[in-house]
Amino acid sequence: MDQNSIDALRAQPIAPFGHLIDGKVVSASDGATMDVISPLNGAVLTTVARGTAQDMDAAITSARAAFGDGRWAGQAPAARKKVLHKWADLIEAHALELAVLGVRDNGTEISMAMKAEPGSAAATIRYYAEALDKVYGEIAPTQGDVLGLIHREPVGVVGAIVPWNFPLMIGAWKLGPALAMGNSVVVKPAETASLSLMRMAELALEAGLPPGVLNAVTGEGAVVGEAMGLSMDVDVLVFTGSGGTGRRLLEYAARSNLKRVYLELGGKSPNVVFADAPNLDEAAKVAAAGIFRNAGQVCVAGSRLLVEAAIHDDFVAAVIRATEAMRVGDPLDLQTNIGAVNSEAQLTQNLGFVDTARAEGGEVVTGGTRILQETGGNFMAPTIVTGVTPEATLAQKEVFGPILGVSPFETDDDAVRIANSTVYGLAGAVWTANLSRAHRMVRDIRTGVMHVNTYGGADGTVPLGGVGQSGNGHDKSLHALDKYINLKTAWIKL
Ligand code: ADP
């Protein structure tokens, strides 16, 4: 990856994207399109199809037909494995193209996008390719002349709704295990980050995935997403995004066919720093990166910094230094640490949170403003607010932007109480050299993921999922496969 190749790719025009239905690129049923606006400079990059409910239904019908005739689920596991590996090969071969396309669309800094997007998407697809022929049924420990067999079957048609922050990585977290288990899938990318996911879907066909097994429909969540949610023919709906949309999806399921709905929602993840942390300078740098990379648009971002009162001022000063050393700007520059905010609307919302934090008594100690306005892009200075009370809006509501709220704590119990004082439970971290304290914090802080003396690291071998209003179900690891299968019992008299 070098700057010249990135710059060459960024100069290329992007052809309009249609839906991918039944192996073909098609326009919206009424021919409508949506402009794709660059978060880097506000220019119109290209268009995507503005899907209709009819388009979504056509994609679901295609997926159902593909599942019904066994063109994928009926193939030998070794054959399906080969196709998924080929897909991963193609993603790797097109990694820079995919990463640059995605960054032009969503604004993530390229240094992060390269790893987190095509890199991790390919790794995820390989992981599930390898797993698919290691999933067996079970024989129950029955007594006497009966045999209880437990089969694992694909569910049928999976609907996947993907957000804009990491379309390839999160897309692969859903598509990899869903396809590995033999299902057909319809994916709906986010309005403001469709391009790279649509391209990744095209590569699946090139890899030999039969037509109709993976369909991709662009458009507004409230139109095509709703049609997917209300469909009578989608068996499982998997989603990453906001709590508000998650609630709607549960309603859609209730109003239609009671489809299973798995939600990976937001967080307000606490990063808890004790005075006995092994390396406070390192902790400060990681705390800054843990909230500010991808401009804070990360579901597991460490957006609440809880600092032991004895080191509060010194530690905050170190986090400010680390933050101010991060370069905000052109996401396609390899030196950039913090890219663009995804959309103008998101930026306005972020600035609103800063105003509210001030009004509620918080002190903005760095950032707080829009910057680089002359570029026409959506850039915000990484922002730290101190004196955030546990009840304050900034401590309670997910911002999904580059804003860190800091609160002091006195004792271990205090730290746990504050850490657990939101409706969320996605991720968290504790920094301490005390082994017992580290384990107690892991046990007592209510989250799906806890980090110790680090923040944000993980790979595909471990599950990611939330508790409380951060959602249900898990992406990644073998546990994710459970979402995409049905258990069926065969009770046999011998
Ligand atoms: P964010 O606030 O992170 O943009 P959203 O939940 O609005 O989160 O978006 C995540 C995904 O959900 C996007 O693909 C979006 O199009 C989709 N979405 C938004 N509204 C709906 C809806 N009413 N029904 C189904 N999907 C929706």
UniProtKB/TrEMBL annotation:
Domain named Aldehyde dehydrogenase: residues: 29-489
Keyword annotations from UniProtKB, A to Z: Oxidoreductase
GO-annotated molecular function: aldehyde dehydrogenase [NAD(P)+] activity
Active site positions: 264
Signal peptide start-end: none
Lineage: superkingdom: Bacteria
Entry's transmembrane regions: none
Residue ranges the record marks as coiled coil: none
CDD domains assigned: ALDH_GABALDH-PuuC (cd07112)
Family from the record: Belongs to the aldehyde dehydrogenase family.
The protein's name: Aldehyde dehydrogenase
Organism: Gymnodinialimonas phycosphaerae
